[in-house]
Amino acid sequence: MDEKQQRQRIDPATGLPYGAVAGASAIPVRKTVKIGRPGYKITKIRDPTTRQVGLQFQIKYPEIGLDVIPRYRFMSAFEQKVDMPQDRNYQYLLVAAEPYETCAFKLESNEIDRSPGKFWTYFDKDTNDYFIQLFFKKLHRA
């Protein structure tokens, strides 16, 4: 095969020339054995000045890997595949840290107040506890 024919070979799976797609497939997938769910404690909180309602999550990762920092993300009800039928009145807070399974917490679908001091996360490396505090924005009633 000459060079021109080799460049024109098409991958039947993607429909693109061979070697053209190297983005996501070039990232190695980590295979770690999950050891179960972490312990957690959820506390309802209220801001004394603004009277906003919020939640504080304390998630315990006693056997977390070295140099692993937990991560969080918010997921809409339409992204998830566990609770069917999907309900727009809820959103999900996902928290993940290897080697533990990802935890999902079902929250009201109210907007989260991300202003400074209202939303924060902290990972205590001494006790391996991960804290997330969030407040919901006040609903304006007419």
Automatic annotation (TrEMBL):
Keyword tags: Metal-binding, Nucleus, Zinc, Zinc-finger
SMART domains: CactinC_cactus
Record GO biological process: spliceosomal complex assembly
InterPro entries named among the record's database cross-references: SF3A2, SF3A2_dom
GO cellular component: catalytic step 2 spliceosome; U2 snRNP; U2-type prespliceosome
Domain of life: Eukaryota
UniProt cross-references to Pfam families, sorted A to Z: SF3A2
Protein name: SF3A2 domain-containing protein
PANTHER family noted in UniProt: SPLICING FACTOR 3A SUBUNIT 2
SF3A2 domain location: 35-130
GO molecular function: zinc ion binding
